Amino acid sequence: MTFSTGRGVPSITVVDDISLTVKRGEFVAIVGPSGSGKSTLLYCLSSLQKPTSGRVNIVGTDVESLRRGALARFRRDRIGFVFQQFNLVPSLDARENVALAGRLARRSDARRRADEALEAVGLTDRAHHRPGTLSGGQQQRVAVARALASDADIVFADEPTGSLDGASGTRVLELLRSLAAGRRSVVMVTHDLDAASRADRVLVLRDGRIHTELTSPTSAEVFAATEAATSETTPQPSGAHS
After folding, report:
1. How far are the Cα atoms of 66, 104, 141 from residue 175, in angstroms, in the given order?
2. 212 has which bridge partners?
3. What is the pTM of this model?
4. Distance from CA of residue 107 to its chain's centroid?
5. Domains of the chain in sequence order
6. pLDDT tens, 165-194?
7. Which one, of 212, 213, 209, lies nearest residue 35 by Cα?
8. Could you give the CA distance from residue 105 to residue 102 in angstroms, rounded to a whole number?
C-alpha cells in the first residue's frame, strides 16, 4: 500500500508485501511501533481502504470485484467493525445503534439481539441514551455490542480498549475472545501488549512488513518482539501513518 504526498515527491510505502490468512474462529492481534502500518493494514483487510496492489478475499469473496452497493451490503452482512472513534449515529440511542445493521438487513430478531449484546457489555441501563450522553468508554462498549449483535463472519477492531478503564477493557477483550469461536474471526490492532497476548496469533509489524509472528504468546513475549521491532525500525519520511 503506497501513498503519494505530492507531485515530484516519492510515494511512501506503508504496507509492503504482506500475505496473511485468518482462519475461521481465530483471534489475530496486530501490534508494532508507531508508523509500522498497523491501521493501514487493518483498513485494507476490512475493505475500508482499497489497496494499491494485491487482493483481499473475505469468506470466498474478492472484495475488489464488488461494486459500491454490493460492497456496502457485503460489509453490512459479513463484516463487523469496532472503530477507535466509535462511529455511532448521534441521533440514535444505544439500542438503535446496535440494532441498525440488523434492521437494515430486515432481520426480525434485530432488537432482541441488540438487547442481548448491550447486556453482555453491561449497558442495559443505557439502552435509550444517545451517544452524546455517554462517556467515551460507554460509547466504545456500544460499538463492541454492535459487532456482537451482527452476523459478521469477521470482526475488525481498531484499538478497542483505548478508551476504557482496566475493568471495562478486560470485559471487552473477553467478549472479543468469545467472538473468535466457531465461524467467526477477530482481527485487532492494539498498542496494549497485554491485550494482544490474549490472541491466538500476534503479528508484529515493522516498516510495513511482518517482523515477527507469535502463536499463543505471553505478554512478555509480545513485549520482547515489539521492542525488537522498535529498535530496528528505520526513520520514515514524514506523512507515514500507523
Report:
1. 31, 24, 10
2. 204
3. 0.85
4. 24
5. 23-232 (3.40.50.300)
6. 888 888 889 888 988 877 899 999 999 999
7. 209
8. 5
